[in-house]
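Priority: medium. Attachment 1 of 2:
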């Protein structure tokens, strides 16, 4: 048989999927993949049933159902202060995953350099490899993940088509400040690069941190492409609804590709999601409060179990330091913990371009009872070791 594409050699198995599968095999509590174990608002479930019954079962407008696009635009304008409209600026995609891939595919030529802050979410580099573009990693060192401004400037100077900014950042939990985003934006302007953001955790922010939309900063809209998702904000990761918000010119190219790659996100779920976008401000305040509570429950168990950790400023992830347990390698630790402790996490090294082997990522988007059960198991970790 002829060989597969050599591109595949650059693509490792997803560490997140590997750990999910292992959690399943050992019946461990799965704190690896980033999804909640609670239901979305009941109103959304009802709306989905209703949409199916009312016959929204065929393709929607491929750019996304118009009324959904308009609702997404309204919500984005409400939170960012930047006026966008559904007709010209919004595309509905199959999750944030398709959104990011479309953006990279629309922008990148083979050989293009794209800057990525490391640690990073695994999809970015894979997307670039598929396009024969080159990920260039700019290290943010734990535990404070500060930007080395001179190093960043040098990378832009050497030529960068774009920079990807995950804000709030998976897996570090870093929330970029307005000042940092302005700095990144000023480099993008100076060196004529695009700013691609991944803002799927925009509403999972712990005070006093606050979310700033890069696209809404002065002068940045034309070169900023905002990838988003309804998955995290409304606890509907399985609905696969993502968004790209960008200038008219970029949106046109995104839609061109989207038509061929997936054609469209699930039509009944697009219909159902419209009501979510018009939830009042209290909904967002309430989820921020709930996630703060989940974070506090879980961090308390981490501390009591002997883990160090880097307090997240946003997202529902925490990077925990496994140094006290005497493992050489974070991957071996995750295998062992899944098997022996009954809790799974993702090895931190899978998110870092540089060798970092003392961190693991836990997802704490779980019901209190799940967090308590996982926490009780973690309290035993010293004895089991
Ligand atoms: N974005 C989520 C995470 O980082 C889910 C990804 C996945 O399951 N592959 O865990």
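Attachment 2 of 2:
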């Amino acid at each position: 048989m002829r060989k597969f594409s050599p591109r595949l050699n650059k693509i490792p198995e997803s560490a997140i999927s590997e750990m999910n599968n292992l959690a399943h095999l050992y019946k461990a509590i799965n704190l690896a993949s980033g999804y909640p174990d609670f239901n979305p608002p009941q109103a959304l479930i009802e709306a989905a049933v209703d949409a199916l019954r009312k016959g929204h079962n065929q393709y929607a407008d491929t750019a996304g159902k118009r009324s959904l696009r308009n609702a997404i635009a309204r919500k984005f304008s409400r939170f960012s202060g930047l006026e966008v409209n559904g007709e010209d600026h919004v595309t509905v995609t199959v999750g944030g995953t398709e959104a990011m891939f479309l953006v990279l595919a629309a922008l990148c030529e083979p050989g293009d350099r794209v800057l990525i802050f490391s640690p990073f979410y695994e999809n970015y580099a894979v997307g670039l490899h598929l396009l024969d573009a080159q990920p260039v990693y700019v290290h943010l060192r734990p535990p404070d993940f500060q930007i080395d401004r001179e190093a960043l400037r040098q990378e832009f100077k050497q030529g960068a088509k774009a920079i990807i900014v995950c804000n709030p950042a998976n897996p570090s939990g870093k929330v970029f400040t307005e000042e940092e985003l302005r700095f990144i934006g000023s480099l993008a302007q100076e060196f004529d690069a695009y700013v691609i953001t991944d803002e799927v955790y925009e509403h999972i922010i712990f005070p006093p941190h606050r979310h700033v939309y890069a696209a809404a900063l002065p002068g940045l809209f034309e070169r900023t492409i905002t990838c988003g998702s309804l998955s995290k904000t409304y606890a509907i990761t399985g609905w696969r609804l993502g968004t790209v918000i960008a200038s008219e010119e970029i949106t046109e190219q995104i839609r061109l590709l989207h038509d061929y790659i997936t054609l469209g996100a699930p039509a009944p779920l697009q219909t159902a999601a419209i009501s979510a976008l018009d939830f009042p401000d209290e909904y967002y305040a309430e989820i921020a409060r709930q996630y703060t509570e989940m974070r506090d429950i879980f961090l308390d168990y981490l501390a009591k179990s002997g883990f160090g950790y880097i307090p997240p400023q946003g997202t529902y992830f925490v990077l925990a330091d496994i140094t006290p347990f005497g493992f050489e390698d974070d991957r071996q630790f995750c295998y062992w913990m899944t098997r022996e402790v009954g809790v799974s996490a993702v090895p931190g090294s899978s998110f870092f371009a540089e060798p970092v082997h003392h961190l693991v990522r836990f997802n704490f988007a779980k019901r209190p009872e799940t967090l308590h059960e996982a926490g009780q198991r973690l309290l035993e970790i010293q004895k089991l070791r």
